[in-house]
Design brief:
With 526 residues, the chain is α+β, with helices and mostly antiparallel strands. α4 packs antiparallel against α6 and α9 runs antiparallel to α10. Helices cover 61% and strands 13% of the residues.
């Protein structure tokens, strides 16, 4: 089962519809944002324009109000001159105020005229008011001079002559103020109405685009959904046909090596219900015979963790057993780590190791291997060098020989090449630091290049295995009996491997140095 290829194929199947949908969505969103930007720009422009016009109109209205106030104050100064003019100090003060307010009115009207450029009718009204104000101010100034010359004896005459003339000025400036206010309101309404009309038109256009693209996108998404459902349904049927139609056990695991799923082949090969598989851990099924060394489950688990860190596929031979099986069954196990959209899927396959179809033609073999200092390799090689024994022995005897060889190989790695003493291993197992010690020695420059040499030959009458390590050796004549007594007395979890091998093989011989052992198994030809 190759999930990555299946996934890539599925992407190719739906690639074209997805591209078309992407185009529709992109086009719709682009149109939406363009309209949004246009609306925003026009809104900013309208607000800016409206603000400028309002500020300009407010300035003109304030100027007009200022001119009105100054005119009223000028008229008030004229009234004071008529009433209190006989008092010379009051006369001077009122006359000064009359002249000052007159200048203010003229200056304000002049500035108002400048602010009203382009409005011809309003400018004409302001010009008429300026001329009228100058004329009346000059006339009142002449009356003031005449009053002073007559020592204010003729003030009743002046009151009669000037009565009501200021009303023309007041009416004229009030009329200008009303015109400016009316024009300001009219412009504000026009800007507001223009903005509303534009926003309405753009909103209708935007809604039309959304409806148009929305319907097309919705239809395309429904089409893609149906297409994808159909494609996935076909792919699922193909997947189920491939996975469920094979005799190989195909399974998935989580990061803690617990089963997530398994195909029907588990029922046939392991006699376990696939529906109950999630209650089990993969390492629970590894058959671990009682041996001299650290358990095979721990070795396999250590290798699995290393493979997961490196995302590297792992392949090994092992015996699997479930509570429903009488005897363990040998499987070839492949586990791969496949990354799918940032998620790591752990997919495994276990194929029953079938009898070699050429075994009936087998007569003999002779071979040599040189392996590194990895316990996992020791277990793997023990399967390889016992594979052809099926021609002369039954499976139970082969499993025992493989077990004995594995124990001797692990001894050669641990105590031979890596120099781990019996006490060091015992303490590490108790403190649960065995694999840390093992990894440290495997990387140590004094030990990492050492190899274990395996030579063997199989004939119709016997199998002979010679295993040589590059360690310092040991005193096998005196050490082995004493070690067995220490193991039994202290109930240690290891130390029985050599004694187990003696019961399995017919002959075991060490060289004088103790770094080479010869194991012989005679076949019962009867």
């Amino acid at each position: 089962m190759d999930s990555s290829k299946l996934f890539e194929s599925l992407k190719k199947i739906i690639k074209a519809p997805i591209n078309e949908t992407f185009f529709l969505i992109s086009g719709g969103l682009t149109a939406f944002f363009l309209i949004f930007i246009l609306n925003s720009g026009f809104g900013i422009y309208s607000t800016y324009g409206l603000s400028n016009d309002l500020i300009k109109n407010m300035m003109r209205i304030n100027m007009t109000r200022g001119a009105q106030v100054a005119l009223h104050e000028q008229i008030l100064a004229w009234d004071k001159i008529l009433i209190y003019g006989y008092n010379y100090s009051d006369f001077q003060k009122s006359y000064h105020e009359f002249s000052l307010k007159g200048e203010i009115v003229q200056n304000t009207l002049f500035n108002l005229k400048l602010q009203s450029s382009g409005e011809i009718d309003l400018i004409a009204d302001i010009d008429r008011l300026i001329v009228m104000h100058k004329s009346i101010t000059s006339e009142f100034t002449a009356h003031i001079v005449h009053l002073d010359e007559e020592n204010f004896r003729n003030f009743n005459e002046k009151i009669t002559l000037t009565k009501g003339k200021e009303n023309e000025l007041i009416d004229a400036i009030t009329d200008i103020a009303q015109k400016i206010e009316t024009e300001s309101e009219r412009e504000s309404v026009w800007i507001r109405d223009r903005s509303i009309i534009f926003l309405l038109i753009s909103s209708v256009f935007l809604i039309t685009i959304l409806i148009f693209y929305g319907r097309r996108i919705g239809a395309k998404l429904i089409e893609n959904h149906n297409f994808l459902d159909t494609s996935l349904s076909v792919s699922e049927k193909k997947y189920r046909h491939i996975v469920e139609g094979t005799n190989e056990i195909i399974f998935t695991l989580d990061n803690e090596w617990r089963f997530k799923s398994i195909n029907e082949a588990a029922r046939t090969n392991l006699q376990i219900d696939p529906e109950d598989i999630t209650r089990h851990n993969f390492t629970d099924f590894i058959y671990d015979e009682i041996g001299d060394n650290i358990t095979l489950r721990q070795v396999v688990l250590s290798r699995l963790e290393e493979a997961k860190r490196e995302l590297a596929p792992i392949r090994f031979d092992t015996l699997l057993k479930t509570p429903n099986l009488i005897e363990p069954i040998e499987f070839k196990v492949n586990i791969e780590f496949i990354e799918i959209e940032g998620y790591i899927e752990i997919i495994g396959k276990a194929a029953k190791k079938a009898d070699d179809r050429f075994s009936e033609f087998f007569i003999s073999e002779k071979c040599e291997y040189s392996i590194g200092n990895f316990l996992f390799t020791a277990d793997d090689i023990s399967h390889r060098i016992t594979g052809n024994l099926q021609k002369y022995l039954d499976k139970s005897d082969i499993n025992l020989i493989r077990l004995g060889l594995r124990e001797i190989l692990i001894n050669s790695i641990e105590h031979g090449n890596l120099g781990i003493t019996f006490k060091e291993k015992s303490l590490a197992i108790i403190e649960d630091t065995y694999f840390d010690l093992l990894n440290e020695r495997q990387k140590h420059p004094d030990y990492k290049e050492r190899k274990v040499q395996i030579e063997y030959f199989i004939t119709p009458s016997k199998a002979v295995y010679k295993i040589t390590d590059q360690g310092a050796g040991f005193d096998h004549k005196n050490t082995i009996p004493g070690k067995l007594k220490e193991v039994n007395d202290n109930l240690l979890p290891h130390g029985r491997g050599i004694h187990m091998a003696k019961k399995i093989f017919d002959e075991i011989r060490y060289n004088d140095k103790g770094n080479q052992v010869l194991l012989v198994k005679e076949f019962d030809l009867n």
